[in-house]
Amino acid sequence: MTHEPENPERDPVLDAAWRVHSTEMPPARLDAAILAAAHRATGSAPEPVVAQENGTRPADVGVKIRASTGPQRWWMPLAAAATIGAVALGILQTLPQHGSIIAPTVSDMPARAVERPAELPHAPRDMLQPKEQRDVPSALAEADVARTPTVAAPPAAPSAAAARKQAAKVAAPPVTDSAAPPPASFAAAPQPFPAEKKADSGETAESADMKSRSRGALATEPAAAPPVAQYSGLARKDERQRSEPLQSAPAAAGAMALGKTAANSARPAKDNDVDAWIMRIHKLHDEGKLADAANELRALRQSNPEADGRLPPELRAWAATVKP
Amino acid sequence: MFAPRDDPSASIAEVSDEALMQAYAAGRAAAFDMLYARHKGGVYRYLLRHCGDAGIAEELFQDVWMNAIRARDRYVPTAKFTTWLYTLAHHRLVDHWRASGRAKFASIDDDGDEGTRAIVEALPASRRDEPEKRIDARQLREQLHAALATLPAVQRDAFLLQQEGGLSLAEIGQLTGVGVETVKSRLRYAVAKLRGELATLGASLREESR
């Protein structure tokens, strides 16, 4: 033995020989199985061990493994976004159908529902016209029918015939805010019982308020008529309940007219009513409907003898020409 | 102390085995890949030299690593990772021998000088006296492995833990449950026997090394 190491437990020659001649490695299938088990234990996918066996340094293998153990399901947010987009698109496609279905259900007025299809094509053009030139829809006209007792309470007439004439006049569509003739459906529609037109002054103010509200609503949105119809319907029902005693009376139409005129004469005219009346006369006058305005003025004079003093200055000259 | 032979470069050595094992226990599978790349060869050869059969060695090798995977949560870096890993391999080997009816680690005493000498003397005379003028690498490998196989199990175990695992004397003693002096004795005998076996090849090895 020529070599005597200082450390008897180590022999450099033997170490070198061992390093050179002991190089067995486990088979690749074992590597794959063990790495797969190791990754299963942590819930990640293993990197193929082929890289190292091809000469790749273990450090490079580690880099590849780190890259492979990044977000395993990066595509899931994209899939979620695509799903949400598809659902949103489907919802958007169904929205117009909902709109077309919901719009007609806003109104519960039978007459309006029947006439609406014919009016729909003209609605946008009508909305562009000035308020005074707009065609009042039949629904408004019908709503006004319910309001007519509150708008024009005719004064007492000396005879039953005059009372009947006045009642017919009151039952006619209002001429205050509509230049168009009443629709045919209105003429054929059953007229309210004349007693309905007898409303007290408080109800008159309430109806005027409702009328103004309904006008505003109709001017901006035709579909807002149903509340007016509901209000007018309630007013009609309330008035019917109050007029039942009159209906049960055996009096004839003349008597009803007499009763109406008597009620009107007994009723004190309020300032608000007179002002509204004057405004209506003013409007008719401005629109050139002088005959209607004169009739209204005469009726106002009968209701309130001092009405001429409350007329605006620009109407006084014209009022002076109107004979009682 | 020798570094593990599968540790290829200084760059990968920046991360210690203990840190990698802790990272793997924390859920980073890439750390295990690196650990496996570092130590798979040493563990495999350790088992293969003890068993002498590639099939059994592969089975034991897989069991060792599976045990390491299962025991990752219980791993505490109180000692070197290699000590812990080769302890798993050593225990698995003992279990295998016990199951096969062979208690190799208890068959020969550490300092059984008579037995050791007998084994060394029992080496084939033909090999020792073989002409060494033309010795190729294949012959040297076979002779080396054959000489190792004739060693007592405890000496072979100490030699393999030192060569393949890079463990120190103290670590080998901790692993095998004996003192450092006992480990030295085992290694001394193992080296002496292997050196004697390879004496005839020594001149050729030195010539190759020059």
In short:
The complex is a heterodimer of chains A (324) and B (210). Chain A has 324 residues and is mostly helical.
Descriptive overview:
The complex is a heterodimer of chains A (324) and B (210). With 324 residues, chain A is mainly α. Chain A has helices at 12-21, 28-42, 50-53, 58-68, 75-102, 110-119, 123-128, 138-151, 160-171, 184-188, 201-220, 225-248, 253-266, 271-286, 290-303, 307-310, 313-321. In chain A, helix 8 crosses helix 12 (225-248) and helix 9 (160-171) packs across helix 13. The relative contact order of chain A is 0.08. Mean pLDDT of chain A is 60; it is low at 1-6, 49-71, 117-160, 170-238 and 243-268. Chain B is mostly helical and 210 residues long. Helices cover 68% and strands 0% of the residues of chain B. Chain B is built from eleven helices and no strands. Chain B has helices at residues 17-25, 29-51, 54-70, 81-99, 113-121, 125-128, 137-149, 153-163, 169-176, 180-197, 199-209. In chain B, helix 4 runs parallel beside helix 9 (169-176) and helix 10 (180-197) packs across helix 11 (199-209). The model of chain B is unreliable at 1-10, 107-113 and 119-134 (pLDDT under 50). At the A-B interface, helix 1, helix 2 and helix 4 of A face helix 2, helix 3, helix 7, helix 10 and helix 11 of B.
